[in-house]
Amino acid sequence: MTIIFTFVLGFCISFLAALLPGLINMTAAKISLQEGKTGALSFAFGAVSVVLVQTLLAVLFARFISSHLEIVAIIQEIAIFIFFGLSVYFFWIAKRPKKIKTDIKVKGKSNRFFFGMLIASINLLPIPFYVFTSISLAASGYFTFDKIPIAAFVSGVVSGSFLIFYIYVVAFKRIEKKTEFLFHNINIIIGSVTALIAIFTLFKFIFS
């Protein structure tokens, strides 16, 4: 598996995962509107520094788990149900994203880098997400737990996350009213991705 492919894999996964408006995205956009791009980018750098640590910890934990075959089999089975469950959720249960709110209050002007780290630290979901994702990708033959692929994957995740934050920082006002199609169909997009991951993992699990 090439380094570039592994990087692109991490980039695409994180880009899609961070695409929806969330606490980090919207806080970065609000800081940009209130204080300018410099403070918002400092916030974004702080946030992605935490994303880097979280992703690295998740992949290293996944590598530890992968050395125990009995645990890997259980994790694979759990991952299949989780990804299929997510697909069901996004296709049939999830409501369409509501109109983006821009009235988030951002008080104070303390160091925005550390503020970004704080906000990103509140969100612990990336750790289990990238544990399951990296194990599923490895089981499907798209990823290995060697040092260079890990570095490439983590770099891709960080780059994809930062690009989303950057887009919210510099272009939020311009894209706010021009993304109706994306935000009304984002559940279908994400559901399709999780379904594909689940199917690949299932086939790999059955025929391995």
Automatic annotation (TrEMBL):
Residue stretches spanning the membrane: 6-28, 40-65, 71-92, 113-138, 150-169, 181-207
Signal peptide annotation: none
Record key words, sorted: Membrane, Transmembrane, Transmembrane helix
Protein name in UniProt: Lysine transporter LysE
Source taxonomy: Bacteria, Pseudomonadati, Bacteroidota, Flavobacteriia, Flavobacteriales
